[in-house]
Amino acid sequence: MSLVRPFDKLPTLNSAAILLVGTDESQQQQLAEAILKEKKTFKINIHVATSLPLPAERDHIRPRIDLIAFMINMQSKHSLRNVEASLSHMDANFFLGKVCFLITGVGRMNHCSVEMNAVRKLGNLYCSPVLFCELDSEGIRVATAQRLLRMLQICAGHMPGVSALFFSSVMKSSIDE
Amino acid sequence: MRRSGRPSLRRRQDMDTPDSGGMTPLGRKTAETGINFTSTTRFSRGLTFIRTHTLFGQSPTRRIIPQTSLLQENADPQKIAFLLRKQWTLYSVTPMYKFSYGNLKEYSRLLSAFVAAEKQKGLAVEVGNDLGIKVTLSTLLGLKGTDQDQVAILVQIASRSQLPFENAEDKVVWSGWFCCICGDDLLESVPEDFTCLSLFLANGAESYTAIVGSWFQKTFDCYFSRLTISPLNLAWMAAMWTGCKVDSHMAATELVFSVPCIPQSLDISYAIHPEDAKALWDTVQKTPGEVTQEEVNLFMDCLYSHFHRHFKIHLSATRLVKVSTSIASAHCDGNIKFLHSKHLIGVLTLLTELAISQIQ
User: Fold this and answer.
1) Is Nucleus one of the keywords (chain B) (predicted)?
2) Residue B51 pLDDT > 90, yes or no?
3) Chain A window 58-117: which residues touch B at a Cβ cutoff of 8 Å?
4) Do B241 and B255 meet the contact criterion of CB atoms below 8 Å apart?
């Protein structure tokens, strides 16, 4: 059982790795396929896991993780609890822009078991962007895949002059200013 | 990295969430998981409903259980008993324009004619033949939370008895009632001509509900929409109603969960002995008379973890669809059954709050 650390491995040339953590495996699979279908200029590794910590046995062959996306389904409280438990197994350096929360299932308000406050508090507490997406719908899945790909490019350092720390501006609301 | 020091919730101008399927804005049908993006800014429609504490999709963090939630003295016990132990379907109603309590007889007459006309549509019937339907509108006294609440209205459709006996009673085939309990905090500054009776409960044939609903919508320019209850609110109900003291025989607290499975969904029913449920709730609740979201979460988590320990099933990954206690029983499709007259006002307060939040 090891902590996932953002900077303890050397990056590989022209490639990036994303880790999707969530309880719904089929949804992760679909999102991963959508990401792979996108046009990109670098090699991408998509790792999926149901929870952290990741098993220690394969740690030496795992590449450096550039972005971790936690998937929470608003219709299942179990997914929220799972993500909350996983967050304690991460190195604090990850929260400098290399984590984001994907919230799905908000479209059907009558089936929501998780309250909105809890999700917003999570985003505020961990200083990470919260993206609402309905991963059941094809169009939104493609849009989310594009978004994640762009974020991954920035987190892996492929964009000169732009760093993952800039994602905090995504979380600001114009009403606050 | 700059971070605002205030931990309070922030308004967002627009959020990329699809339009919710459950909360339909007036007159508009929305797809369940469509790609419609709605702005969360309030749209004022002349009537300003001021919602000071909630944003999109939020439920309140704490609810006060009113201590003096007994029926008022002028309640008719027979009429109240009529409301109990029946399955009522819930609707939320927007404020009615120019509704007057003095004209109830007139409304009864008009509604009778309307119901008879609707029922006769498409049938070849002799002119002047009375179908034997009688509609009565009456007030339900005693169903008030605060003094500013409007008096509840009861609508009944009875079929006139065909028997020639003098004292043969009419058989009630459909009942519906409007009420609004403690709705003032949420409905501020409603103009003079509007009557706010936000909650409508119907029992009987669906066709009659549709006919009565369309008459009210045409006559008073209001809108009826089905009130569905989300699993979050059902969890609140389970927690709040378990905590109520019931002197007589207590029924078991039963929770029904729906597991999304292919091809058919699976239903799990979890029944808890009422004494145990109440004991658990008493250890969770800190301030008597007030319930917070954390307490509700803790109560439900305890039940889920107990179930998981025995059956290795995560109930938190399923959807709560029905809650049944000694006070009342509620289903997520918007059906409710009242079982106890003493706590009727408390349950109606919560339902009124849900109805008002749906129409805002």
Assistant:
1) yes
2) no
3) 75-79, 81, 96-97, 106-117
4) no
Q: Are both B124 and B205 inside the same structural domain? A: yes
Residues B202 and B233 in one domain: no
* Interface confidence (ipTM) of the complex: 0.85
Q: Which pTM was predicted?
A: 0.80
Which tens digits make up the pLDDT trace of B294-338?
899 999 999 999 999 999 999 999 999 999 999 999 999 999 999
Domain count, chain A: 1
pLDDT of B166: 57
- The tokens for B342 are 């003493």
Residues B93 and B220: their CA atoms lie apart, in Å, by 11
**Which residues constitute the domain of residue B98?**
77-226
Residue A29 structural domain: 15-171
Task: Indicate whether B285 pLDDT > 50.
Answer: yes
How many domains are there within chain B? Answer: 2
Q: Check which CATH number belongs to the domain holding A157 and give it.
A: 3.40.50.300
Taking an 8 Å cut-off on Cβ atoms, the answer to whether B33 and A76 are in contact is no
Out of B65-69, B90-94, B130-134, B148-152, which region has the weakest mean confidence (pLDDT)? B65-69
Going by C-beta distance under 8 Å and a sequence separation of 6 or more, which residues neighbour residue A175? B10, B11, B12, B13
The CA distance from B295 to the nearest CA of chain A, in Å, is 14
Which pLDDT value is given to residue B22? Answer: 41
A5, part of any domain: no
Cβ contact, residue pair B20, A124, below 8 Å: no
Contact partners, residue B24, CB within 8 Å, separation at least 6: B30, B225
Same domain, B95 and B183: yes
For residues B100 and B185, state if they share a domain: yes
The secondary structure element, H or E, covering residue A43 is strand A43-49
